Every structure is written in C-alpha cells, then in structure tokens.
Amino acid sequence: MLRPPSLLLLLTRCSAARRFLSASRQGQGQGQGRAVGSVLKTPKGTRDHPPAQVALRERLLGTVVACFKRHGAAAIDTPVLELRETLMGKYGDNAKLVYELQDQGGELLALRYDLTVPFARYLAMNKITNIKRYHVAKVYRRDNPATTRGRYREFYQCDFDIAGQFDPMLPDAECLKIVHEILSDLQLGDFLIKVNDRRILNGVLAICGIPESKFITTCSTIDKLDKVPWEEVKNEMVGGKGLSPEAADCIGEYVQLHGGLDLIEQLLQDPKLSQNKLAKEGLGDMKLLFEYLTLFGITGKISFDLSLARGLDYYTGVIFEAVLLQQENDHVEDLVGIGSVAGGGRYDGLVGMFDPKGRKVPCVGVSIGIERIFSILEQRVKASGEKVRTTETQVLVATPQKRLLSARLKLISELWDAGIKAEMLYKKDPTLLKQLQYCESMGIPLAAIIGEQELSDGVVKLRDVATREEVDIPREGLPDEIRRRLEP
C-alpha cells in the first residue's frame, strides 16, 4: 500500500516549484529586456538584400546560368548541412573556416564550405561516374568579413563541373572557355585567367628539396604571392613553415615566372624540372591545354602563372583563377582590391575519398565568385544613377473616374488569365494622376485605362507611360497588343 507523502516532502516540492517559477519569470523578463534594448541587426558577415539588390543579383545569375546551360549542364542541389567528417581534411589551412555545429542528436554536422566537396560526396553516394552539372547555392565560411570587397560569411557560389573519364584537357579547356564567356558577357572590364598545374608545382617543390609532408602548407604560402611581395612569402616559408633559405630561394626562381606556350617549352627543357615525372606530365598537359585554348581563341586572356597554388587539398592537376585588372578613369573603386572573381581546377581523387572501394571519378570544375562580381555591379549602378526595376509588371490597370473598381477587377483578372503581368492600386477610387505616377516610379511601361466611354465602346485605352501616347485597343485583343509592344 502506498504511503501518503510526508509534509516535509510536499514543502520541498512546493519550494522547488516556486524557485523554478521565479527563475522562469526572471528569465522571461530579462529576455524581454534584452530584446527591447538590443540593436536589431544581421549576424556579422551577412546582410539582407532589398528588392533592387535581388533584381540585380537575378540579372547576374541569369547570365551565369545561361552560360552553364549553353554548355549542356544539368542542375543539382544538395543539403546545406553535411556530416562534419565529410568536410574535414579537404580544405588545407582553410579547414578552420568551416562552421561546425553542436551535436544535434547523434550526428556531428557542419555547414557546407563550398559546393565541390558535397558534389563529390553526391557522386560517390549515388555511384555516378559521368555528369556535367551546375549548382547555384549559398555556402558558409567563418572568415573575417570584408564587405567592401565582396567577402561575406554567407554567400552564393555558382559551380560548373564535368565528371567522368575523358581525353586529357578537353573538359579543362571548356571550363576555361566558360570563365572567359561569363566575364566577357558581364562586361566587367579587362580580366586575366591564371592557370597552373598542381603536378608542376609539386615537381618544383620536390626538386627544391621540400618533403612531401610540407607540400600543402607550402602551397598555401605560395598562393599569397598575388597579394604580398616575394620577400614576405619567403619569410613565411622560412620562419613559419621551417624551410631553409636555400630551398625558399629555389622555389622563388620558379614561382615568379609567368607567360604562355613559350614558358611551357622553356620549362620542358629545364634540366632539373624536366627530370621530375609529375612536373613533366603536368607540363605536357599544359601544352595541350594551350593548344585547345588557342583554337577557342582565348589565349590573349590566359597566363601560365607558376605562383598560382589554390590552397585546397583536393586539387590534383590543372588549377585556374580569374582576376579583374585595374582600369584607369573607372567609376568603380580599385578593381585590384576585389580579388579573384572565379577559380577552379581538376580534382581526380576527391570522389574516391568517399567511395567505400576508393573508386575514382575524374572531375574538373569552376566556381564563379558571384558576391565579388555583384559588389562591382552594385557600385557601377550607384555611380551611373541607374534605377533598377524591382518587378516585371508589364501593365497597370487604371480607371479615370470613380465607382469603376468592378471594371478594374474584371479587366485585371482577364489579363492575369492571359498570362500578362499586371497590377492595380489597392484603392477603390484612386486618381488617374496617382496611378500614372505609380507607373513612372515602378518603371511599368504601359497603362490599360478603362473608363465609362471605353466600357461603352468595348475597348481599352492603352497608354505608353514614357511617350504618353494613347490608343484604343479592342478589349479581346489587349493581351496580344501588350505582348507585341513589349517583345524584346
């Protein structure tokens, strides 16, 4: 038989309950106080995008995606979350920038750092050995933001990749052609696409006596040569990475070289580098790549640059990076400060890291630096005073007299049903002036005006907002007339 609870136990429980309620109320009060007193803002390195920015971004993405589709790519999507173990060990010194999440019920997760590693995981998981894909999505990096240079913690990447076993350098050349097309289509000004090969770079390190265990960290240091002078890079190699001054000088003899086919031929004859098997393979492929790029007619924008290292662990062959060149008398701030606007390379071993049997799927791809390009376009729009349209409305349905709301609603419904992008003001009896002013402020090109006379005659007065010309159109022919006028 159950014994009734003792008085002491009841008092203890009541006391505990009172303490819990008191703490809860205090916590609620403090939470409300913080909410009232705190400044509303987005997290560091992120930002909201108002309609004008979103419209500009969509215009930019439209150009990029159109190029990807022109080259026969299909779109995929992957989760923004990945298992932590999927991402770790793929990014070299940048692994510290991966956003790791707290244990969410048995799985250690992280936010995706890029779109390449999730793509490799996708291929291995689904046993795909041949695909040409593009992917546009947000990625996350725990970086120090530099918003004026288009560097954020949350940002879009636009990737194009070719996976599969193909003849050497054909997919690689197409990736470089895509970069050239996109940067030309966007009219960002003069640009240069730097190319190198990790096999050539590793060959340089080998003949300079660098142990293989230090290849990746040394490459990360070499990769800074586009931002700081050689002396600073050398000091980091010697002081930070433990290389001898002689080894650093040996590296410096090579990584400060850049050119074209002539440089490739020169290095193929180099007495030391030509004896390294990996470097010789890389130089042979680089020569073939330049032959294909010559056929594409784009070698004028390509530079074989031995300082290009791209500090990610997974690159195995050709690597490339596109940079904008500074222009004089340009309204945009110093373009050199923007940094690279596209980059990529070959990563033949990444898929095999996820496959249980280690089966490799050769891959090459490019990532377009949308945020940095967007920063440039945004600055140009501001400098030019261009007003960016935030909607695609083709026509505003307007009335010149009162008590015609029902006529407006019937007409706009007919236009919507016909696939016309139409708006009306949410007032029963707006003045015609207010309606036309709305057209001008929103950039709406046409106004469909229906008054008592138009209702009687079975027509609609179609007004060109810019020229103010008006013409009566039979009501049933209005959708076709709107389309005809707004054809590109």
What strand order characterises the main sheet? 1-4-5-11-10-9-6-8-7
Structural class: alpha+beta
| Unreliable stretches covering 5 or more consecutive residues | 1-14, 20-31, 328-337
- What fraction, in percent, of the residue positions are helical? 40-55%
The largest β sheet comes out as: 9 strands, mixed
- Overall morphology: elongated
Number of helices: 16
- Gyration radius, rounded: 31 Å
Distance between the termini: 89 Å
Q: Approximately how much beta-strand content do the residues carry?
A: 15-25%
Mean pLDDT: 88
Q: Could you tell me the number of beta strands?
A: 16
Description:
By secondary structure, the protein is α+β, with helices and mostly antiparallel strands. The protein has helices at 7-37, 51-70, 84-87, 116-125, 170-185, 198-207, 215-222, 230-240, 245-255, 261-268, 277-296, 370-384, 405-417, 432-442, 452-457, 478-485, and strands spanning 74-75, 81-83, 109-111, 131-140, 154-163, 191-197, 258-259, 302-305, 318-324, 340-346, 363-368, 395-398, 422-423, 446-449, 459-464, 470-474. The strands form 3 sheets. The chain has a 9-stranded mixed beta sheet with strand order 1-4-5-11-10-9-6-8-7. The protein starts with 6 loop residues before the first helix and ends with a helix. 34% of the residues are buried.
